[in-house]
Amino acid sequence: MDRPRTVGGVWTDDETGVLVDMMLGIRDAGERWQENIDMVAYMIELSLPDLVAAHVEG
User: Fold this and answer.
1) Buried b (16+ CB within 10 A) or exposed e, 11-39
2) Where along the chain do its domains lie?
3) What are phi and psi of 4, to 5 degrees?
4) Are the CB atoms for 3 and 9 separated by under 8 Å?
5) Model-wide pTM > 0.85
6) Residue 11: what pLDDT?
7) How far apart are CA 31 and CA 48, in angstroms?
8) Nearest to 13 by CA among 36, 45, 21
9) How many CB atoms lie within 10 A of CB 44?
């Protein structure tokens, strides 16, 4: 099921899965999520370059 997101469009299940995987990876590394929040956009860009390009162009 797709989920609404705040910046237009919706999160697909694949996008949601990537975000969850990134969040779990940060926790598993013993780092605090709040200390790495600025890395999220970069991590998403690396994981989903086509999505980011479409969002920037659109």
Assistant:
1) beeebeebbeebeeebeeeeeeeeeeeee
2) 10-57
3) -65, 150
4) no
5) no
6) 64
7) 23
8) 21
9) 17
SS3 for 1-57 is CCEECCCCCEECHHHHHHHHHHHHHHHHCCCCHHHHHHHHHHHHHHHCHHHHHHHHH
Task: Reply yes or no on whether the pLDDT at 29 is more than 60.
Answer: no
The DSSP symbol for 58 reads: -
Sole residue written with tokens 């890395």: 39
pLDDT of residue 20: 75
Residue type, 33: W
At 1 the pLDDT is: 47
Sorted by sequence, the CB contacts under 8 Å of residue 45 that are 6+ apart come out as: 52
